[in-house]
Each structure stands twice: as structure tokens, then as C-alpha cells.
Write a structure and sequence with these properties.
Elements (H helix, E strand, L loop, with lengths): L7 E5 L3 H14 L5 E6 L15 H8 L4 H7 L3 E3 L1 E5 L9 E5 L5 H16 L13 H7 L17 E3 L2 H14 L3 E4 L2 E6 L5 E6 L4 E3 L2 E4 L6 H6 L4 E3 L8 E7 L9 E5 L3 E7 L4 E7 L6 H12 L9 E4 L3 E3 L3 E2 L2 E3 L5 E2 L7 H17 L5 H27 L7 H8 L5 H11 L4 H8 L7 H10 L19 H12 L5 H4 L10
Helix pairs in contact: 1-6, 1-9, 9-10, 12-13
The protein binds flavin-adenine dinucleotide.
Length: 505
């Protein structure tokens, strides 16, 4: 392979982004003689909060040929069927809904849901509860793992929850075992070639590390991309208000849920992520609307930990992305490149997609300015595609308890594409056609858009003339179908081989 004159790649930063990138590059290019090295600071920690994934993470471990039986127990990992959204809507019958990941069985049941959402928008009184139509929603409702018996020949796009510190360590150990060179040190200075390319980094102890290509995985610090190469940051603060988070663990006992819960709070939302040994919790909020202390008190009260001395970690978040991710001989990956708030747990997926796109460009020999620009445009489109879906959660909220929610709903700063999607929905059009026309189905599927819009109750009142409709599906049939399907799955605890939980005396 033409290695574009690159024999040594230096990754700066050893968080999830650094170790995922190192693992993937090493996996693909070690055979071409390309050395991958990673340097991380022992003083500056990692952010250590990304604990939920999308189904894309399964591809990572499959590519690296690492079995679930090995990595999941090592990282306190659990299975994830999707996300429950609580209290985002106040509309009766719509105060909670489930956003499932996909499985091939959806092709048999989604049509009913889709038709119902159209009929309901025309004023017919038909059922539009998303969780009644999707197997992964049913699995989550019964605390079951998305791993079917062998005689159940359908595929599941399930995801995971995990301890992010442990995943980082796990990937580090594997990567080092497989040939990645690991060093510690804090970058103090970056040397440039005369033409402006990066030449080497100087560490606090005086060590100088050179390379042909650099990958900036230094988190929000963005030492190479933003600080050294001065790539501007494009903020999404006009679209997404949240800029702070608090994280704290709580105990887990009893059945282990197989879904994340996202509960709307006064000035943001709280996550609840089940691991095998604890829950990871957090509150993502806007500092324009509430102070650190208020947010911590609200989170503690929500978790029933008001008088508990469990430590809370306060974090700043910068939501947006760099104007370009690949500049000269440097690529930004992870938080250094950009971040969309974690409502749909997309950051780790983004890391993976960006690395895969870079690998593809590299292998195609696409190192010209033109191809760099193409890569950067694609990355920015990915950010915009994910951002719009996240923004819709706020646009569809119906809360009136705080200015935060009212201002979010009334925020006029939304993209033209999102406006078109919402218009299509409200005029009773076919969402699939509109999403296809806009070319956005690669970010979120029509199922995802339909679930959110229906789940939060974005419907006109039922017309008295349109009470019944002959086209509605028989719910008894659907429920029996799913009940039969569930016979092929195990309780989540059992699938994780955790044994039965102790019964109360
Ligand atoms: C509140 C919150 C919740 C989140 N939840 C999710 C989620 O559920 N799912 C998801 O996919 N993502 C989530 N994320 C995002 C996720 O945490 C990150 O995308 C992921 O952890 C990758 O981070 P990183 O490796 O880019 O940065 P970091 O973890 O911050 O790592 C930065 C690295 O750079 C090193 N470094 C920094 N400066 C220097 C220097 N001068 N010299 C040498 N080394 C240096 C540090 O030592 C560290 O090793 C969340 C983020 C936040 C803020």
C-alpha cells in the first residue's frame, strides 16, 4: 500500500478517543509497517463519563476481534436496547416513550406504527405508542438482553453500557499487547516545520517526540488542532443550550435494566445508566438557567441522595465542532474535534466513524487538499445530522415549568432541514419520503424520527368524526406476537451471568 510517506503516527491523548483510534489504526496498518504511538499526560486525567453507546460500538469490538465474553465483564458492561425518555412531554398519554435500536423484525411491525402515525395526524383515534410496535422496546420493558436463542434468526442492532475508565484501560492493554507504543508525558510545546506542518511535540520532561502524522485526542483542550493550528471552533450554543454536567454513581440492585433512562429535569435532563456494579448518573444542564449548587441539589434529590456523601463531579462541556477536523498533517478525533451533548450517546460512535473515514481516505491515497476538504465536509455533515435530531427533543418538549424549557421550545435557531421535517410531520405527510429527500436517514432512521414525534405526542386533537379507522392493527395480535418472540431471550442478569439477585426477607 502507498502509505503517503507516513511511517509513524503519534496520537496525543489517552482517553476513549485516543485508545479507540490507536486500536483501529494499529489493526489496519501494522501490517504495512506503520508504527502507531500514543502519549498521554499522567497529570491531566480523562473525562471518564461516556458510559453509553450506540450499536456502532459492536463493530469496534468485532473489527478488533475481541469477544463480548472478554471485554464486557472486564468493563462492567451491560446491554442496551435503547433509551427511555421520561417527562420531556406533559401531554397526557405521552409523558414517557422509548427510542429503540433497530432489529430485522421491525420490518414486520414498523408498517403498522407508521400507518398509525399518519392516521393519527389526520385526526383518527388510533394507537401511536411507539413501544407497542418494536421488539427492542419490549425487551427493555422486561429487562431482557438482546441476545436471542440460536433458532431465532433475526439480527439486532444492540448497544452497550460500560465503565468508561475500564474501557479505556482495556483498550490500552490490548493495543499495547498488539504493538502500539505507549508513553506518558504532558505536552508543553509543539514544533512546526517551515511549511507549517506539525514536526514534533515537546513534553514537560524535555523529551521530544516526532512523527509524520499527528492525531489530536487531547479532549476539550484540543492542544494540536485548536491551540496550535488555530482551527476555529463553531459553537452550537444557539441550538443546544446545555454547557455543564454533573456525574455521580448510585447503587444498583435487583434486575439490571437493559436501557438508558433520560429524565427531563428543571434545567436539562438526567441520565441513568445501568452497569453490573452501579448506576452511572448525571445531569446535563445550562449554566444560563441554574447554578452548580442548584443543579447538584436537584440531581441528588432526583436520585434520593440528598443526605448522602457520594461525591459529585462537575464538568464543563463545549458543544460544537472545529471548522475542519483534518488540517495539514493533523487529525482531531474525539472531544478535541467536537462534541454534541450526550442525549443520544453519539460521541463514541462519532469517534469510530471519523477514524473509519480517515482510514478509507488514507487507503485510497486521498491526501490532497481536495480530499481533505471532502473529509472535513463529511464530518461536518455528520455533526449537523446528529445535532438536528438532538435539537428536535427540545423543540418537541411541552413543559412549562421553567424558562429553560419554554425558551428551548420557542428557539427559532433550527436548521432548514429540521424545519422541513417538522413541517412535513405537522401537515400529515409521509416522513420517510421527506427524510429521503433531505438525505438524512444515515444519521437517524425514520423509526427514530417517528418514535420521537409520536412519543412526545405531536398530534392534533382527535376529530369526533374520525373516532375509528378500519386500517388500525389488532393490538392483541401484536402483543401475542411479541410475547412469543420474548420466549427466545434471557433476563439481562442471566445473560450477563450475574446469577439471581438476593430476594428481600
Ligand atoms: C457529561 C458527558 C457525558 C457523556 N456521555 C457520553 C455517552 O454516554 N456516550 C458517548 O458516546 N459519549 C459520551 N460523552 C463523550 C465521551 O465522554 C467522550 O467522547 C469520550 O470519552 C472521548 O473523550 P476524549 O478521549 O476525546 O477526551 P478525554 O477523555 O478528555 O481524554 C483526553 C486525553 O488527553 C490527554 N491530554 C490532555 N492535555 C494533554 C497534554 N497537554 N499533554 C498530554 N496529554 C494531554 C489527557 O491526559 C487524556 O488522556 C460524554 C461527555 C460528557 C461531557
Amino acid at each position: 500500500m502507498n502509505t503517503n510517506g507516513i511511517n509513524h503516527i503519534l496520537i496525543v491523548g489517552g482517553g476513549t478517543a485516543g485508545w479507540m483510534t490507536a486500536s483501529l489504526l494499529n489493526h489496519h496498518w501494522r501490517k504495512w509497517g506503520i508504527q502507531v504511538s500514543l502519549v498521554e499526560s499522567a497529570e491531566i486525567g480523562i473525562i471518564g463519563v461516556g458510559e453509553g453507546s450506540t450499536p456502532k460500538m459492536k463493530d469496534l469490538f468485532d473489527t478488533l476481534e475481541i469477544d463480548e465474553a472478554e471485554w464486557m465483564p472486564a468493563c462492567n458492561g451491560t446491554y442496551k436496547n435503547g433509551i427511555t425518555f421520561k417527562d420531556w412531554s406533559t401531554i397526557p398519554g405521552h409523558t414517557e416513550y422509548f427510542h429503540p435500536f433497530g432489529c430485522t423484525i421491525d420490518s414486520m411491525t414498523y408498517q403498522f406504527f407508521r400507518e398509525h402515525t399518519v392516521l393519527r395526524r389526520q385526526g383518527h383515534d388510533v394507537d401511536v405508542t411507539p413501544e407497542r410496535y418494536f421488539l427492542m422496546s419490549q425487551l427493555a420493558a422486561h429487562d431482557m438482553a438482546p441476545k436471542a436463542a440460536q433458532n431465532f434468526p433475526f439480527q439486532f442492532d444492540y448497544a452497550y453500557h460500560f465503565d468508561s475508565m475500564l474501557v479505556g484501560r482495556f483498550l490500552r492493554d490490548k493495543a499495547v499487547e498488539r504493538g502500539v507504543r505507549h508513553m506518558t508525558g504532558t505536552v508543553e510545546h509543539v514544533r512546526r516545520h517551515e511549511n507549517g506542518d506539525l514536526a514534533a511535540i515537546e513534553l514537560a520532561d524535555g523529551t521530544c517526540l516526532d512523527a509524520d502524522f499527528f492525531i489530536d485526542c487531547t479532549g476539550f483542550a484540543s492542544i494540536l488542532l485548536q491551540k496550535t493550528l488555530q482551527v476555529p471552533f463553531v459553537s452550537f450554543a444557539d441550538n443546544l443550550f446545555n454547557d455543564r454536567a454533573i456525574a455521580m454513581p448510585s447503587e444498583i440492585s435487583g434486575p439490571i435494566p437493559s436501557a438508558t433512562v433520560s429524565t427531563a429535569m428543571k434545567h436539562g435532563w438526567a441520565w441513568k445508566i445501568p452497569l453490573t456494579n452501579r448506576y452511572g448518573n448525571g445531569y446535563v444542564y445550562s449554566s444560563d438557567y441554574c447554578s452548580e449548587d442548584e443543579a447538584e441539589t436537584e440531581l441528588r434529590s432526583h436520585l434520593g441522595l440528598l443526605d448522602d456523601d457520594t461525591e459529585a463531579r462537575h464538568l464543563n462541556m463545549r458543544v460544537g465542532c472545529t471548522e475542519r477536523s483534518w488540517v495539514r498533517n493533523c487529525l482531531g478525533i474525539g472531544l478535541s474535534q467536537g462534541f454534541i451533548e450526550p442525549l443520544e450517546a453519539t460521541a463514541i460512535q462519532f469517534i469510530q466513524t471519523s477514524v473509519e473515514m480517515f482510514i478509507q481516505a488514507f487507503q485510497n491515497g486521498e491526501f490532497s487538499n481536495y480530499h481533505q476538504q471532502k473529509y472535513n465536509d463529511k464530518v461536518n455533515q455528520n455533526y449537523a445530522g446528529i445535532r438536528d435530531y438532538i435539537v428536535l427533543h427540545y423543540q418537541t418538549n411541552s413543559r412549562t415549568d421553567t424558562d429553560y424549557w419554554i425558551n428551548n421550545r420557542e428557539n427559532p435557531n433550527i436548521s432548514d432541514q429540521l424545519r422541513d421535517i417538522m413541517d412535513c410531520w405537522h401537515r400529515g405527510g409521509y416522513l420517510e419520503d421527506e427524510l429521503q429527500r433531505l438525505g438524512v436517514t444515515q444519521y437517524y432512521s425514520p423509526i427514530s424520527w417517528n418514535c420521537m414525534l409520536a412519543g412526545t405526542g405531536q398530534f392534533p386533537p382527535v376529530s369526533s368524526r374520525n373516532k375509528q379507522h378500519p386500517g388500525q392493527v389488532n393490538q392483541d395480535y401484536l402483543q401475542q406476537f411479541f410475547a412469543d418472540c420474548l420466549l427466545n431471550f434471557k433476563p439481562h442478569r442471566e445473560q450477563l451471568k450475574l446469577g439471581p439477585f438476593p430476594k428481600c426477607a
